[in-house]
Amino acid sequence: MNDINNWQKLAEYPTNLLAETHAIYLQNNGINVQTQLVDLMGLNTGGVLWVAPEDVEQAKALLNNIDDTSQLADDDLVDHNDSAKLQ
Questions:
Q1: Which helix (H) or strand (E) holds 18?
Q2: What is the pTM of this model?
Q3: Measured distance CA(76)–CA(68) in Å, rounded
Q4: What is the mean pLDDT of each run of 10 residues along the chain (87 residues)?
């Protein structure tokens, strides 16, 4: 698992915070995750999650079950462009 070629790209996020939060969620559910953050001179510009090939389907299923809007009362507050791009 140490060889970078064994990792498979799972998702891209528009912010570091979303990438890190979802990585922790996956780790808490038994998925081995590596996070690649894109940080240009202090800008919170995004991140990519990488997982082992055997964990891809389970990780996708876990991410698809996240309801990002359940805590918001007004749909106008939801940024629909602020979600993961699953591979």
A1: helix 16-28
A2: 0.71
A3: 13
A4: 74 90 95 88 82 94 77 50 61
Token pair 């082992």: residue:
52
Q: How far apart are CA 34 and CA 20, in angstroms?
A: 10
- Give strand pairing partners of 36: 48
Amino acid letter, 39: D
DSSP category for residue 82: S
Tokens 């055997």 belong to 54
Cα(69)–Cα(54) distance, rounded to whole angstroms?
29
Which of 85, 77, 78 is closest to 47 using CA atoms?
Answer: 85
